[in-house]
Amino acid sequence: MRTKEGAVLKYHQIEEDLKDLILREEIRPGDKLPSENKLVIKYNVSRQTVRKALANLEKDGYIYAVHGSGTFCSDGVKMKKESKDIAVVMTYLSDYIFPKVINGIDSVLSCNDYSIVLKHTNNSRAREVQCLEEILQKNIDGVIIEPSKSNMFCRHKNLYDKLDEYGVPYIFIQGEYSIMEDKVHVLLDDERGGYLLTKYLIELGHKEILGVFKSDDTQGQNRHKGYVKALLEAGIPYNPENVIWFYTEDRAVHPYNHIQSMIKNGKKIDAIVAYNDQLAMHIIKALREMGVKVPEDISITGYDNSQMATSTGVRLTTIVHPQEELGRMAAELLMKMIKGEEVQKRVIIEPELIVGNSCKKREE
User: Fold this and answer.
1) φ and ψ at 37, to 5 degrees?
2) Which of 38, 48, 82, 322 suits 7 as a labelling partner, its CA being 20 to 30 A distant?
């Protein structure tokens, strides 16, 4: 005998399975869904359970019924009820930046009686796809998202197209996909930030400046552009051998091992522009293990002006990352979009250089 609980679970399973097929476009607009009889057999449930699942899908705008012909995938906009929920999708929740970003978002949303549905991707494309699919299956009024590995081509634009189709506004922060530059973004001018750091080191007399940048996001690419611009502006030839690129997956080992290997092999380095504060502090530790002093032997800069930039005897020269302001700005724009107001497509925050004691002037 089937229990009431079992029937409810089956009803949810049918509904979620069909939603998933629609969102993955395995069932496309205009396609006919499997008949009630086939669904009854497939899920081993009653016709009433199948009809309940189909009725909910029709209510939410995923499907429509044609009397005497069957049920079809809708090509219209999803019928959506206001939920007062905003999905916030971050790459990392434990990272030193994102708690403040979330605080900034929440300060605006809570004043407007909205709640945060928090998700994270671990900077994984597969996980971002999963998060978007989950969002599309719920009543969400808007989305704030930091794209995962934003420098790589986005192969799941169809999910963002679904958000557009369903009338769910979304905003990108911290990074951008090249094929969605026309969407709303709130970004720090990372190219300018990389330029300011490198220019400062050059003004201190450094010439052998190593750059360490993350390859798979646009922040790393743009900070590298600023690094190159400052070198060329000062008449210092760009040397690709002075740049270390790393990926998300190898960030815990590769940059430090590479720097230690370069120093052991006699590579001349008098300064390092690090991708962020976290990386800079780990590089300082790796240098100290080799007996190399900062800033006496090598100057180093960070990026983000995080708490760790002042957590040891070394105060990093770094770039201010206004995390809470970025979160507030994104949330305020999203509130306007939900109300149907026109908003600025690209909001660029100007970076600010903070001088610490991690850099030392070099004698001519």
Assistant:
1) -60, -45
2) 82
